[in-house]
Amino acid sequence: MAQPATWDHPEPLAVASAPVPEYGSGSLADLLPTLAAGMGVPGMIAAIPELTAADRNCVFLVDGLGWEQIKDHADEAPYLHALLGSSRGGTGRPLTAGYPATTATSLASVGTGLPPGAHGLPGYTVRNPDTGALMNQLRWQPWTKPKPWQPYPTIFQLAQDAGVHAAQVSSPTFQNTPLTKVALSGGTFLGRLTGEERMDLAAEQLAAGDRSLVYTYYAELDGAGHRYGVASDTWRGQLMYVDRLVQRLAEQLPPRSALYVTADHGMIDVPFDEEHRIDFDADWELRAGVALLGGEGRARHVYAVRGAENDVLTCWREVLGEQFWVASRDEAIAAGWFGPTVDERVHDRLGDVIVAARDDVLVIASEREPKESAMVGNHGSMTPAEQLVPLLEVRS
Fold this sequence. Notes:
Blueprint: H1 31-38, E1 56-62, H2 67-72, H3 78-82, H4 87-90, E2 95-96, H5 103-112, H6 116-119, E3 125-127, E4 134-136, H7 146-149, H8 155-161, E5 165-170, H9 178-183, E6 188-191, H10 195-207, E7 212-218, H11 220-228, H12 233-250, E8 257-262, E9 268-269, E10 277-279, H13 284-287, E11 290-296, E12 299-304, H14 309-320, E13 324-328, H15 329-335, H16 344-347, E14 353-357, E15 362-364, H17 370-373, E16 377-378, H18 384-387, E17 388-389, E18 392-395
Parallel strand pairs: 1-7, 1-8, 5-6, 5-7, 10-15
Antiparallel strand pairs: 2-17, 3-4, 8-18, 9-16, 11-12, 12-14, 13-14
C-alpha cells in the first residue's frame, strides 16, 4: 500500500514566537516617566527599576543608533562602545523600541510615555478610519488635526506643570511640525543647526533649573543608513561624528545630572534582489483582496477589502509566513505587539493583517513607494538589530 506523501512545507512562523517589546519595564515608552518620577512629577511611575533618580536629566536620542550597531562598531564609536556597560542603570542591557521600530512611533512613545496602542501612532503610514485614506505619521500627510489624533499630554508638559525646567534642543525645522506637537511639546523648544551647538545648548539648559528635563536629537545617522546602508563608509563617518557629540555633551554636564543616550530604532541592510525584496506591486497574489498597503517594508499594515480579511490573512501567511510573522489585527493585539491595550480610537488604524519581518527581507511597493523601496538600510520589525536600543548613561 502506498504511503501518503510527506508534507515538507515549513509551518508559518507562530505569532507567539515574535519577541514582543518590554512594555511597562524596559521600553522607550518607560523612559521619561521613570525620569520624571525621580524628579517628583505627580502621577509618574518609575517603570525602569534599574535607573537611579537625578535632579537634572538629559535624553539624547540619535535616530537609527541601534544597540547592535554600537556593539559592532567599536573602532568608529569608542566612547559609545565604552559606555555599553552603563546601559539601563549599569546592567549592560538595552531597551526595546516598541512595535513598529520606526521614528514616528518611537518619538511618540518617548514623548508621551505611552505604548503605540495608546498614543495612536502605530506605524509609518496607517489608515485614517475617518477618511479611509493612508496617513503618513512622520510627514503628517495628508494634514490631520493633531490633538484628536494624539490627545494625551506629553511628559514635558506634565513636568513643566510640576515646576521642572523642560526644554527640547533640536533642528529648527522640527519646531512647528505636527509630530513635534503631539509627541514632544511642552517646555521651551530651542532650534540649533549644528550638532555641536545642540550639545552646548543642551548642557546650558540642564543647568538652567534645579530640576531639569532636556531632550536633544540628531537625525543624520539614520539618513545615511537609509541611503547607503549601515555597512557604508558614509554611515560609519556619521557614527564617528555622533561619538564625538556624545562625548562633548558628557564633558559639559552640570552637577547632579544624568545623560541618557538612546535611539528610536536600529537598522538592517537588505540586499537588492527578488529573494529579499518582495514587490507587492508586481505580485498579483499578495495584491488580491487588498484595499490599502500601509506601514513600511519590514512592518506592514495590510488593509483588506471588506469581507476579504480572512482570505488576505491566509494568502499572506502562505506566501510570506516562513520569513515574516503574519498576524490578524486581533492576534497582534492579543500578543501585545502594540502594548498591553489598544485604545478604541486606535483599533481601526491597525491593519487587518499585520506583517513583521524576521529575516533580512522586505515587502516593497516599487510603484507606490519608489523612494522607500530604494532604501538600503531599513527598520520597523522586532529583530534585535531593529528593536534593541541603548540607554547609555553618564552622570556628574
